[in-house]
Design a protein that fits this description.
disordered N terminus, about 260 residues, single chain, 5-stranded mixed sheet, 4-stranded antiparallel sheet, about 20% strand, Jelly Rolls, Arc Repressor Mutant, subunit A, 11 helices
Amino acid sequence: MQAHQAAKSALSFPFALPPALALCYHRPMLLHAGDTMPKISAISFHTAALPPLNQCWKEVLDLADKLEFSQGTQLTLNTERENFFYFLEHGRLSLVHDTENGKTRTISTMEEAGTLLNVTHALARQMTDFIEKGCHFHCITDVTLRRFDGSLLHDEGFIRAYPHLIASLGVKILAHHTILAHFGTGGALAQLCRFCFNLSDANGGAEEFAPGISQTQLARLLGMDRATLVRLPQKLRRIGVILELNRDRLVIGDMKKLRQLAVQ
């Protein structure tokens, strides 16, 4: 109860960084006794199909408003004048970005409930007026969100009471940093090779395994049309690099050449 009361009143601090970051920097946060952080597979990062990353936030849902949206709704959350972040309580969402050619590119998909949205916007709002207007969320199913006031992430009382919640923010930021780094640079061939190489690495360096992602999903993830994605494996097959690529089977013929193509 005391922690919740502290969380409802935002504090102002003379820190150059938001308190959620400043406290982590000055003093390592220890989890409460018995608290455990879930292990997130590297494969989820490379396929951008995110499992629940922030389930521990369920314990403070009484601090959040409940919002419901129907399947197919497009949500733009980071252009609001108010400072909010959200918890996906029910349903499936995809984060998409508008491209220069008028199409949209899937950045990541939240296949299950339990992940926070708009966290970096809420953390940085006091430090910059920059807003990325090209990103929005697509409701794959009916969706229930819980809306938190962004001041929680700047409230020292809340941070001290729930250090494990603050610690869980890191994996979400890391996930999106990794996704953007892997899929945001290089040409189409390099991006496909990087995807295959990273997925192999996440599977222990295996040269044959099931990637678990369809060509349509992969095309959206890489920001290319499906026809292009069909042509690229054919080219790689001719030079013996990728022998087969579909949802159920990825066979790598030349790992050394695949690595070289991935860093072009």
